[in-house]
Amino acid sequence: MIEFSEARRTALDYVRNLSVGLRIELVLVDEATSDEGWCWVFAYDSRAHLESGDSGDALLGLSPLVVIKETGMLQPLSSTPPPDDALALLRLSAEAPVTAPVAVGESAGATAATGPPRPAPIPLGLTRAVPVDGDELAATVRQLGLPPPAPLSPLPDLSDGRPTDGATARGPTDPGRLLEAFQELPEATVRNALLPLVVPDRVVEARAGLFDSAPSPCRLYTSRRAGGVFAGLRPTLDPDRAHELLAPYSTGDLTRWVQSQLQFSAGAPIPPPQEELDAAQLAFLLALIDAYKTRFFRSFAGRRSTPTPLALSCADVLEAQEDALLVADRRWLTRTLTELFALLAHPGGRTGVTLPPVTEEFAERELLRYAEAGHLERTGTAAEPRYTPSLAFSVFAGTLFTWTVLLALHDVQLTGWEDGRAAGQEELLLFVVTQPALWTLLSDGLTEVVRTPEPDWSRARFALRSLDLADAAVLTDDFLRPLPVEPLPDEIYAPVAARASAPGPAPAVSPEAPTEVRRSEPGPVPASPPTLAATRPPWQPTHQVPADGMPAWAEPDPNRAPVARIDARVELQILERAGDWAHIICSNGWSAWVDGRVMEPLR
Asked: What are the DSSP calls for 245-265, one per residue?
């Protein structure tokens, strides 16, 4: 049970935050506050309207704020139905069993009666985007009095090794610049906004990229101890501040961003050839689409007096898969999704896991199955069968020749502590935004894939649908809803240093920082997408490393530490560019991502 003063402070923080977002000074109307027995109801209005009484200064849609006495939870009251009915509905939900949030430094077993009030919800529009470096962010966290980083925290990997007091050859690390970006917000809001970076129990990695471009990553951290608010980090190529901090970031901000990416599609209801697929079937379907796309564009090579149906063979499907893995060309679905799956950071820090390869035997069996279902018509001979796509399949595959945006949400949520390490669940939601159709791919059972030394795709399934924008919004909301699990154990939030001597494998999700090495050409990177180096075209250098050497990354993401440092004057070949990043390959077949602005072209 909380006191009135705590409830009023929670409501006041919410109103102050909302004032910043709306750029209008809002104040609590104390004389309108009511005590309903089980909650307090706080009214608020603009100061201009209270002082002038002019209806022109009144703001529409300002619903009262309800703070529940038992839990301290704040809930804006719905404007529909009428206030009395809305309050009655809220009371019914409030009387259901709830778990109180855990304050920083308190036991996970704290009860609602002894715990502090929940943090006030974060309104939309408060997010700041601030360039930061790791040590500056760590110094700010220390100044705010937040706890040491927990196992899932990205802060240790962001630090460049400065002393803990922030002193460096460049001078002390001053958190003042970062805090200036939040100066209009209450200190409690700032602390709560950065707390997810310190004690996260969930990571949502959002990637979005236009057709034929590398998807830009943003990792969003949240924690039950922060009331569900997110803090995000996305890469920059600023040598002094390699990251951009997004905070405070609400679930509503994330769903609105997703909707802004999806709006370019007409959302036509186009049926796919199969709505439920296992991993092997999905890999085959991607290769089949790429094979059909290849045949379709090759058919324009010469004029014909009569239309000639396009026909595909098993060899065409296998060739499409091989080409997609061999050539770094994101115009092909197989390559794009192979790269995407390889970049996912699974619980335990594992990366480089891709869909199973399509074998000749499996491709032949799937082609026959598609023919029996009417998606393909078998032609050719018994010894060399070919398959002509049906009109329905041609329409389906044709919508995926190009896309406007490819957007992926990879959600990892911790669920407990098992055998000395955190246990988690993960799933993937993928949107392929095309002009006619909005395709969605939703995983089920992705967690089970990486539980064994070798990826086991037998229990993973994927749902493929074309949705309209409204259904896509509902799906996004459902996907982002937290798992209904019991309070998480203290070990998940314990400082890493406190358990450094504990036996057992590394904590879940947070990848170990790779050790930097110096050599003429770095060794292989486990997280890189699969390639067929044995059949790669002849290597032809185009650039060289500058005189002071250069770092290299496994992916275009400064959120992760460099995997190697390449010595001066090593010759490189550029495979592709993505903004300021360059995907390079060395003479021994090893490839990585580097800062394309500093490479020197060969003369």
From this structure: EEEEE-HHHHHHHHHHHHTT-
